[in-house]
Amino acid sequence: MARGSSAGAVVAALTAAALAVVGYFTYQASAAQDRAEAGASDSGGSGELTEREKEEKERETNLPAFSGAGKRVVYDLDRNRVWLMNPDQEVKRTFRVAPSSVDPEPGTYKVESRAPHVTGSDGVPVENVVRFATSQGTTIGFSAALDGSLPDADQVRQTGGIRERRADGEAMWLFATIGTKVVVVR
Asked: Fewest Cβ atoms closer than 10 Å to its Cβ: which of 3, 30, 92, 186?
């Protein structure tokens, strides 16, 4: 009986050691994911942004001048970036988008229609569609592909879908109801 107890103790110790190793690697993987989501820099490796990277990020995310006031969506055609602006001039959210092949003209528009799920003008199933303009006979709006893709604009076919990541599309959907102002700038 003593021999069986000692073999059982060895198996238990090995099992505990194996679980500890698996737990350690799981913790490391989780910590790496947390660092990546926090915006770790590829260039420095330390996760810290250099001063130049901070300045570039700030320039990229600064709200364009002369983009209106009040509650609105601001879409910068040159930077492929959107800002959701609260009535008090506070940025609720900003994010990059993949442009459509047909751009709206710079100006002020209003959200004209919305659809929870449709097939985009490029044939891709999309959600959270927020339409605000028509240009060159093509309806222009923000949407998120169900497969999460952010395609390059198709220069052969006229498409009006300005693609967002799904989380950004959800934020746009909740923010930009019918009649919400959309300011397009260059």
From this structure: 3
Note the residue count of the chain. 186
Token pair 């076919």: residue: 157
- Is residue 71 a part of any domain in this protein? yes
Q: Which of 138, 145, 142 is nearest to 84 (CA)?
A: 142
Residue 132 lies in a domain: yes
Per-residue pLDDT reduced to its tens digit, 28-63: 444 444 434 334 333 344 568 888 877 777 777 899
β-bridge partners, 82: 75, 95
Residue 123 domain boundaries: 64-185
CATH number of the domain within which 166 lies: 2.40.440.10
pTM: 0.70
Q: Give the integer Cα–Cα distance in Å for 49 and 108.
A: 35
